[in-house]
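Run log, item B.
One chain of 493 residues. Sequence copied directly from the ordering sheet:
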Amino acid sequence: MQQPQAQPAEKFSEKFTDHAVNGVNPTEQTADFVAAHRTEDVRELALKSKRVDGLDLPLALDQIAGWQIACKKLPQWASCEGIIYPPHISMEQCSSQFTAQYKSEIAQTLLTPAVTVRARMSDSAESDNQTTKSEPQLSNSGESDNCEVEMCLRMSDSPESDTQETKTGVRVTDSPESDTLVARSSMVDLTGGFGVDFSYLARGFSQATYVERQRHLCDLAEHNMAALGLDQARIVCGDGVEYLRQMDPVDFIYLDPARRDEHGSRTYAIEDCTPNVLELRDLLLAKSQCTLVKLSPMLDWRKAVADFDGTVREVHIVATGNECKELLLVLGQQVHEEPSAPRVFCVNDNQRIDYDSAAYTQGLRIGGKPLPEAKNYLYEPNASIMKAGCFDLVEERFGVTQVGPSSHLFVSATPVADFPGRGFAIEAIGGMNKKDIKRLLNGTKQANIAVRNFPLTAPQLRKKLKLADGGPVYLFGTTMQGCDHVLLRTSKI
């Protein structure tokens, strides 16, 4: 769950309703200011903007900054004029469109066979009569103003809503005669936050419940889900753990535990996050077919799997721009008596590989495959593969060879198509002696420098070689098989 800055109790949406303050309509003043200055620098606006009656400048600046971030991070949200954005820190912490869409893809892949009805277009009338699963309920204490049990129901009253196709466009076909998918499924996001993940997950479900204990975030979600056209979204202001205990079973649960302690310091261990998903494991398994848990990318995924004691079915290591963003675990009931190893998915933008983790437990296997005589190409795996540590899989699947223990670089004699990472043409290889360095540099004054399993850091190597940064040359310092420290001069493919 994201930890936003404290906000006033007043609803965000109420700030845009038509009511006068000192005779001035705040909606028109604030909305006009946002529209007029949307592309300008927020800091400069904060300094030079005049205080005008009816203009809520802090809110306007939040909207401008939020929209500017969303243009890069959430372009689909940015294109929706009705979205209200939270303060800056929440925008920085929220999921990107890519990672949110990927979670929706996971959910639909897991549940499509179990929770959809395939009907030919000619049979669509029959599908209208099928009933949806029961919705989870909160016990009602009778106190309507109690945040713990307040529910804001945003479900379409139209009977046509029961027969809409899944909004993700996911389809399953067995033959050229394509069948129409009708979603009959329910999900709950127990840690709603700003609601980006929920907004994408909800599109694949006919019933989607967002649970968040902070009222202002619920108000924000209620407004934004309506703006996004998610009529199946149901907003619940309450504690996610308490809601989990009381709710009826659903098809899918999502959790993003807060990774900050009570003092605001960042935490990483599963048991230090809020809520502690390890303590909730059995309850989650009892309440859903599948549970998707978002964890810190800093965690060792193998230890995380072991902590959940045989209930992890899939591990998803998600990177974008070659930076690990999320570690996702899919929890589910054990199919066999003996715990089975999970399937691991490594994702970096459009580069994706998956494998059975039980089949690759031999580590690096250095020495099992000798280096090729002709070392013409160098390959560096993307961040998700680095995190997964499946280097023996990379060797086997792409026909490359690891250069040495813990170096995590690969060489080949011939180019490798579709390698999940960066590829370079090797121009020269040499040691660290003066003669080899002079030959390798050959008058070069600048280079991009990286080190893997090397006695010097990249800045130290740059200083030693007296090179400026940049240019077309890429220098790698690493350790080859046989423990030789080498420099590889390359150019990017």
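Observations after the first pass:
- The mean pLDDT is 80.
- The two ends are 41 Å apart (CA to CA).
Flagged for discussion on Thursday.
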